[in-house]
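Hey, quick one: can you model this chain's 3D structure?
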Amino acid sequence: MKKIVVDGVTKTFGDTVALDNVSFEVPAGEFVAILGVSGSGKSTLLRCMSALTEPTEGEIIIDEEPMVTPRPEVAMIFQQHNIIGDMTAYSNALSGAIHEAGLVESIFQLQDRDEKERALEALDTVGLLDEAQKKARRMSGGQQQRVGIARALVQRPTVLLADEPVASLDPGSAQDVMRYLQHAAEQRDLTTFISLHQVNIARKFGQRFIGLRDGQKVFDGYRDELTIDAVDKIYGDIDTEGMFVRPDSEPDGSPTEVAR
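Sure thing. Here's the predicted structure for all 260 residues.
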């Protein structure tokens, strides 16, 4: 895969403009954090990129093909996990192969050996191999989100999209999920887009940052360019004090000076 192209994407819902002529290009392998307040267009952008939502105008090109229908090589991770509590971590991860095995085969776990091995490898990637036979409902929120990551990895994606994957987690669990996402992306050479509202976590793990405000792209740059002024442009009047930590330190809430 050479690059991902988002070209003039606009999405309206009635009179509401969720995305307003958003454009950018991302080469393969980048780890991109999409920043913005709730309602800025982050989730809508990811849903358009996964073809779960159709843009009103513009197009998105992945693997040199327009995204008009969902494709297994573009995997989506959701904030609320969307895993089945009465199924084991292994069974949930294995369901990521449903596009290959089919619905009936997936229900009765009749997938072939390769698919089953992929599920175990994906659980290993997110640090849950020893918990493979544990029921998902008995797992913590952070572990459940990691199961969701494993399920996405079983699809063998080239692009990984994660919509607010740590929004409902405590700081420690959020750190763990982000580490495993980063590890998976590096290990499998995935182009990754993660929507976040926590700037400190984004700065620690992100490589490139795209900021949305009122549906418009207001920032596109790398860590050194994500200054307080840039954050003010993304977040407006929201108090940004304490949002920054050193990229090589733990986000413990202590502010770090960043150049304006």
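One thing worth noting: The mean pLDDT is 87.
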